[in-house]
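$ ./design --mode recover --in tokens.txt
reading tokens...
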């Protein structure tokens, strides 16, 4: 069987938020992406669709490493790129 070009498992991206005023602050998170699994194989075309604000752009930005994932793994051509720095992501 052909290996996927892109494989995403359990991808999560949570953003911290602070609520309240000066005297009563609370902390929480916004779960922008919460457990995405996806495989894309060579020659395959996909579309990521959903309602406004459901996390489509966040998935893309996290896969491109513009955002650090909260958890999960991202593999590109069989290589785990989840923890690579932007410098390490440059073409070799």
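writing sequence...
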């Amino acid at each position: 069987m052909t290996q996927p070009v892109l494989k995403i498992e359990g991808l999560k991206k949570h953003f911290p938020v602070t609520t309240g005023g000066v005297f009563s602050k609370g902390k929480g998170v916004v779960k922008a992406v919460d457990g995405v699994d996806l495989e894309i194989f060579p020659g395959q075309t996909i579309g990521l669709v959903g309602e406004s604000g459901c996390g489509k752009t966040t998935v893309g930005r996290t896969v491109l490493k513009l955002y650090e994932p909260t958890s999960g793994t991202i593999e590109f051509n069989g290589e785990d790129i989840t923890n690579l720095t932007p410098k390490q992501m440059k073409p070799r």
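exit 0
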